[in-house]
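If you are new to this repository, start here. Below is one unmodified record pulled from the training split, so you can see the exact layout before writing a loader.
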Amino acid sequence: MDFYRALSEYYDEIFPLKGAQKTFLHDYLNQESLRSVLDIGCGTGTLALELSQIGIRVLGVDLSEEMIEISRKKAHETGSTASFSLADMRDLGSITELFDGIVCLGNTLAHVSGEDELRKVLTQFREKGTHLLLQTVNYDRIIAKQVKELPIIKTSHLIFYRFYTYRPDGKLDFAMKIEFPGTRAGVSGVNLLFPIKSDLLKKALLETGWEVSELWGNFAKEPWTEDSPATVLSAKRIPV
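And here is the target side for that same chain:
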């Protein structure tokens, strides 16, 4: 988590909420008539704050204390009704509220250790809400093409690099680096990811009581293919 501690300072600059994503989320919430959302892996709270502005009750949770601190500060400064709490998606026992929808975006889900933990997490999601929206990198494409580097993100004063190293156990070492042009300053770190391919994700969802509703390749709602940049999936809880 050391890298995410450092990343928190630059998170909003690197990962702003873009127009297509905002439109997608507003349409999804309206279509499903969702009035409350649990935002898993909320980062610095940008999504939660956006949803609160349209009257959605939102709780954002993240494992990074720094991210949660920034989220709370932003909520205070903007007068937002969104709330934030430190929590791990592997253990949501401290959250007693129920929500219409669970949102887990930004490749958060790939931080599980493997299939068993994936099912455990999806089971916990099911206990908290009736609708689920997931987004990950499209690992079908990553694995099939042995992608070793994601597109570089450049802003006015930093460059963000992301690299994959393939491990013998099938997992990925995900290295990230922030450089500041014109200086020697930089931040780097490595995280272990479990690359969740689409078939495995759909299988795990079904096994944990979810029915997949739709699958897209990006937030522009283009159909998912193996070459899509992302896997965006919506599901509904199967009644017992």
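Two things worth knowing about this chain: The first strand starts at residue 36 and ends at 40. Residues 2-137+197-237 form a domain with the Rossmann fold fold (CATH 3.40.50.150).
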